[in-house]
């Protein structure tokens, strides 16, 4: 069964103030990399973040996305998640897709920790019954105790990250999308977070992970796609692609 099937998809963004001088000079530079196009009078300029990408993901696929800054990795994750729809081509999505692209997204400052467990849980596609059954376990993982009854505007950054991470990793995804998530917090939390993250990734049927950390890609992914200028330059078994990538980048 294909969870994700992308057929010749492009994602484009119109640049409305392309006549502005400083933006224009930046656009000229990007144009040389082939991702900018404009009409004949230069008024309607578009950035092509993804260009004719085809890809299918099945049960067991753990796909790494690699490539330089601006290659299109985040755009591809957002296309898979449904944040973007293709301007050309098509995508079909099946199963529960959980994007962990911004772990603090959907948190409300004036709500308590417990209320945020519910809010973000719903946003990530959990049912109210599922949230209730996981509430205690999420609370315990955060170690925030009585703080969970206070509005999260009273939390430190580290406390917010603990809460957001605990909620995000309590879901049961079919397709898990990750954009360089872990790495913040104190040392003991990072250890705990890694263990929980490993459990989450084992529950997911498909993973797509964008990273600049080659060791992380090797550890997690069995397939890798190398993106360049919005196109898939190479895709295949991780070690084969990484060797080619490391030769030139
Ligand atoms: N909302 C947007 N509006 C206009 N251009 C965008 C937008 N989002 C991305 N782009 C452009 O699309 C291209 C791909 O960006 P993307 O963020 O997908 O790259 P990336 O591979 O994730 O880069 P990085 O490794 O730096 O995070 C870049 O040229 C970027 O400037």
Task: Give a structural overview.
With 249 residues, the protein is of the alpha/beta class. 38% of the residues lie in helices and 28% in strands. It has 8 helices and 10 strands. The strands form 2 sheets. A 6-stranded mixed sheet has the order 6-7-8-4-9-10, with helices on both faces. Helix 3 crosses helix 5 (157-168) and helix 4 crosses helix 5. The longest helix is centred in the last third of the chain and has 17 residues, at 187-203. It starts with a strand and ends with a helix. Adenosine-5'-triphosphate is lined by residues 13, 35, 47, 49, 67, 69-75.
Order of helices and strands: EHEEEHEEHHHEHEHEEH
Helix content: 25-40%
Class per helix and strand makeup? alpha/beta
Strand content: 25-35%
What CATH first level of the domain at 2-96 and 209-248 would be assigned? Alpha Beta
InterPro entries: AAA+_ATPase, ABC_transporter-like_ATP-bd, ABC_transpr_TagH-like, Bact_Polysacc_Export_ATP-bd, P-loop_NTPase
Family: Belongs to the ABC transporter superfamily.
Keywords: ATP-binding, Nucleotide-binding, Transport
GO molecular function: ATP binding
